[in-house]
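Review form for a predicted model. The reviewer records the input and the model, then writes brief findings.
Reviewer: anonymous (R2)
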Amino acid sequence: MAQPLKPKKVPMRKCVITNEQHPKMEMFRVVRTPENTVVVDLTGKVRGHGAYVCKKKSAIQNAMKKKTLDKHLEVAVPDTIYEEMLELLEKESNK
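Model under review:
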């Protein structure tokens, strides 16, 4: 007799700003690469030290104001990274 299929486990990650847990695919991953550059990782496969930020405008603005990502990634995060996340958030909300 065949066993019923188990539902696939959804990987959860914690937002470094709000400390809320969300599914991994519903968050931005910001990565400090081995070359000490900072990028927004849309694929989840970029090598380096990563931090997750939930897709909320308030969380991104709070991260920029308090420099939370700078502390987690141990490198100065340029404002262009925050702007890129806000643009991506805007594009997703317009779909």
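Findings: Strands lie at 12-14, 21-23, 27-32, 38-41, 49-54.
Further findings: The longest strand covers residues 27-32.
Recommendation: see findings above.
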